[in-house]
């Protein structure tokens, strides 16, 4: 287990990596890597039309990871589907007593883009859900910036090219000839 000072430094390093990540895929990979600092197991679902689709995980066996990635959760009553709603909660704790699990919505542009889930067996370390919340906030900001950049680029392509203003030719000054 990391001591708290080392943990804070490691979270800071992940936050810096998030700020320089290129695009959503890299942001999600870094976020999953950072989740390993917060919990023994982590998984990320992408959200499309309030349906969760397993995207990636850390800390699972190969079979568990494959099942996670193949998972599709459509029923809002299933864990952690309630987080996919834009008007839903930002986080939730799984209600069973077998394992501890927390999930957090990753919100961008007024909608839920992903759901991050962390879990552990009772008493298993590390367990720092609050550290993951910090990384999720950094990821949300980075994703918002990425979204804004793409909108600006799209607007630039939609606008007609501005024609440069041609300068008027310099006036011709004619010298009048002296009449002799």
Describe the structure in your own words.
The protein is α+β, with helices and mostly antiparallel strands and 180 residues long. It is built from 4 helices and 6 strands. The protein has helices at residues 4-20, 23-38, 62-70, 129-158, and strands at residues 41-48, 51-58, 72-73, 91-93, 100-108, 111-120. It has a 6-stranded antiparallel beta sheet. Helix 1 (4-20) runs antiparallel to helix 2 (23-38). The longest helix is centred in the C-terminal third of the chain and has 30 residues, at 129-158. The model has no long low-confidence stretch (mean pLDDT 89).
Query: Biggest sheet, in brief?
Result: 6 strands, antiparallel
**How many angstroms does the end-to-end distance come to?**
106 Å
Instruction: Work out the strand percent.
Output: 15-25%
Residue-averaged pLDDT: 89
**Lateral arrangement of strands in the main beta sheet:** 3-2-1-6-5-4
Secondary-structure-based class equals: alpha+beta
Quaternary arrangement of the chains shown? Answer: single chain
Rg over CA atoms: 26 Å
Please describe the topology of this protein.
Layout (H helix, E strand, L loop, with lengths): L3 H17 L2 H16 L2 E8 L2 E8 L3 H9 L1 E2 L17 E3 L6 E9 L2 E10 L8 H30 L22
Antiparallel strand pairs: 1-2, 1-6, 2-3, 4-5, 5-6
Helix pairs in contact: 1-2, 1-4, 2-4
């Amino acid at each position: 287990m990391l001591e708290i000072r080392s943990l804070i430094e490691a979270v800071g390093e992940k936050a810096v990596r998030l700020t320089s990540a290129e695009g959503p895929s890299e942001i999600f990979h870094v976020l999953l890597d950072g989740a390993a600092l917060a919990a023994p197991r982590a998984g990320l679902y992408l959200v499309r039309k309030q349906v969760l689709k397993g995207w990636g995980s850390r800390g699972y066996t190969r079979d568990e990871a494959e099942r996670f990635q193949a998972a599709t959760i459509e029923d809002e009553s299933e864990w952690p589907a309630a987080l996919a709603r834009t008007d839903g909660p930002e986080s939730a704790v799984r209600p069973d007593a077998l394992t501890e699990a927390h999930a957090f919505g990753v919100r961008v542009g007024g909608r839920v883009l992903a759901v991050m889930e962390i879990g552990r067996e009772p008493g298993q370390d590390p367990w720092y859900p609050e550290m993951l919340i910090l990384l999720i906030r950094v990821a949300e900001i980075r994703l918002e910036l990425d979204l804004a950049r793409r909108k600006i680029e799209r607007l630039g392509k939609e606008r007609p090219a501005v024609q440069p203003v041609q300068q008027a030719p310099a006036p011709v000054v004619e010298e009048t000839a002296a009449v002799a």
